[in-house]
Amino acid sequence: MSPPLSGETPRRRPPGMTDVARLAGVSQKTVSRVVNNERYVSDEVREKVLRAARELGFRPNTAARALITGRFRRIGVVSLGTALYGPASLQVALERATRAAGVSVTVANTAEGQPGAVAEAIEWLLQQGVDAVVISEPIDEGEPVDVDTDVPIYSLGQGQGLPEARNLLPGEFNRHASREAVEHLLDLGHARVRHLAGPGKWYAARERAQGWRDAHEARGIEPPPLLEGDWSPAAGYRAGLELLRDPDVTAVACANDDMAIGLVRAFAEAGRAVPEQVSVTGFDDIPAAAYLTPPLTTVRQQFEADAVRALGAVLRRLPGAPADAPEAEPRTDGRARSLVVRASTAPPPNRLKGEPGKDAR
Amino acid sequence: MSPPLSGETPRRRPPGMTDVARLAGVSQKTVSRVVNNERYVSDEVREKVLRAARELGFRPNTAARALITGRFRRIGVVSLGTALYGPASLQVALERATRAAGVSVTVANTAEGQPGAVAEAIEWLLQQGVDAVVISEPIDEGEPVDVDTDVPIYSLGQGQGLPEARNLLPGEFNRHASREAVEHLLDLGHARVRHLAGPGKWYAARERAQGWRDAHEARGIEPPPLLEGDWSPAAGYRAGLELLRDPDVTAVACANDDMAIGLVRAFAEAGRAVPEQVSVTGFDDIPAAAYLTPPLTTVRQQFEADAVRALGAVLRRLPGAPADAPEAEPRTDGRARSLVVRASTAPPPNRLKGEPGKDAR
DNA sequence: GTTGCACATGACAACGTAGTCAGAACCTGG
DNA sequence: CCAGGTTCTGACTACGTTGTCATGTGCAAC
């Protein structure tokens, strides 16, 4: 059969287990058993039921099932409603991992910048009926998320005022990877590295900024002033204009690739060549990063792996878990190397020949 | 109250209308009326009920509601599971427009490249219970989508074997905008324009290719051979290498910005300057487009507006529409100008001075 | 004072499924 | 042969809500 003739058809009642049961000559309960793959159904009956179900185009009614079981086999994902590469990748990865487990995903984007937008999005999801909520890009709205519900709320990163156990991803990755990028620059011989951070309310932005501080402090260097942008290329461009006024800047670590793009552009327009005069790093490794002019040194993220690992924890707790399940999952160390060195970084201009710092490690 | 102590709590039964009714001293049916904003409830009772509901933290059970009404107030969106800027933007816009109407969105990403993946995703959504399905990026899998259901299936673009009425967006936009970009190049004096298309199975890619052909044919020019990529910068780079072997190439129109980035890179590495020796256009106007080297001439898409308009049609038909509702909605002409001219396009190298073609129109 | 209608509320059934329990059919071992 | 289990099946009910219908109340028109 194909789609119906018109959009406004009365839409007849879809077949239910009762219809299948009648056709197969068994009880509704038996159909239920077959559909749910329960034990104690003879192969013969199972076959008969499946045939009947196929013939009628039967699809179990999830509403009825959810009503009686009290569980929806659906999770809610709160996303920030941007088409940013990182969040978008994460969301796709989340859906994949989830569907594989027979769980569906309902998304809710937060209204940008609105205070309480996250709580609002969570409330919306709870009203839709979900077994768990995952906050995809945790941000700090000032007050902790506080919703009256028994539905577990998780966060893909630190913060949100949730108990630590609800943090599905180690914050260390951002911090450590960011530090690694900065150390790469310091190793090249740069005296200090400027940092163009993401919005301060994003925990991911804070962690990357902290990694940048770590790198300096580990060498006893006072970190220079921090710049902040909103992840956009435009913000990177503005930050670039700002930095151009300081002739001493030789290296900038950006909190994402998009801002790095804008920043590089500002330098290019001003005739400050990258990487000859100024080195720039990004974060994310967007697909275009390798093809920019110059190709961008950046940090690769592992969204797919992160999502799978994170969701493992969520899904395991859905069905009414064994309570003594192995709480401590592998949690990959978060310190895996992931810096991708390309052509946007080089030794600073004044140290001309030789490769100082290369042996500094 | 805050989240519960532990993830594995027994999760007590959430309050229902019966509980609210008991507390408010009315019947359960009256609670239902208040919750659904029905007429014929005295202000006094309404107040009492709302207070009780608030006190108990009552949230209506959508499963029970869906069970009896047969409608879920939820739509399914089939997405291609890429973090591409276009699709990601569309998805965000869809969710926004939908939530504003009190309808939630469940996403299903197709398994890349698998035949029948779209039908599979639709089937999954139908099993979850949705009132309509929207295919976000229509592609041609060879055989038309054919699912046995009364749930309406729409497509954000031509194709998919669905009846024309199910096409929510005019294909003209892609075709016309692409033509416009090519005409811009021809007007600059380029003799012919190469085209780096998206995958042939994407209808959007076909439409953009057609627009490119249109532009040539309108001037009686035989369009040169078509190149095809997979939307990725890497594909653009490979196409660039290919084109480098032809010294006569002076202009390339790419079907999206990412491929344009890769292509520009290939030319840059080979010393063929953009735009001095070769002009390049993109499509989408990703945020980074204005900050690339050189800034990219491209076509701006209006995802938000498209999504709102498209969903208007879907949502209007959900509740059991008036049947004689104004079927013909504005359908903005799809020919709105949207070319954003930046620095990646210029007259061809051999015609040095003067600006030929500028008056060709 | 009765009729009629708008307003306000509640009792009851129904939606399609899964849980509970009972019972039938069939074994196995004594 | 029966006791006691395992396998298989169905009748009945509950889940939390909305739809239907009945009932009651107040007020205006006759």
Main sheet of chain A? 4 strands, parallel
How many strand elements of chain A? 10
Are there runs of chain A of 5+ residues with pLDDT below 50, and where? 1-9, 320-331, 351-361
CATH 2nd-level architecture of the largest domain in chain A: 3-Layer(aba) Sandwich
CATH-level-4 superfamily name of the largest domain in chain A = Response regulator
List keywords for this structure.
homodimer, 361 residues, alpha/beta, 434 Repressor (Amino-terminal Domain), Rossmann fold, 3 domains, 4-stranded parallel sheet, 10 strands, disordered N terminus, DNA-binding
Structure description:
Two copies of one chain form a homodimer. Chain A has 361 residues and is α/β, with parallel strands linked by helices. Chain A has three domains: 17-60, 434 Repressor (Amino-terminal Domain); 69-168 and 304-316, Rossmann fold (3-Layer(aba) Sandwich), CATH 3.40.50.2300; 172-297, 3-Layer(aba) Sandwich (Rossmann fold), CATH 3.40.50. Helices cover 38% and strands 10% of the residues of chain A. The first copy, chain A, contains eleven helices and ten strands. A four-stranded parallel β-sheet of chain A has the order 2-1-3-4. In chain A, strands 6-5-7-8 form a four-stranded parallel β-sheet, with helices on both faces. In chain A, helix 8 (203-218) links the parallel strand 5 (194-197) and strand 6 (226-228). The longest helix of chain A is centred in the N-terminal third of the chain and has 16 residues, at 85-100. Residues 1-9, 320-331 and 351-361 of chain A have low confidence and may be disordered. At the A-B interface, helix 4, helix 5, strand 2, helix 6 and helix 9 of A face helix 4, helix 5, strand 2, helix 6 and helix 9 of B. The structure holds a DNA duplex (30 and 30 nucleotides).
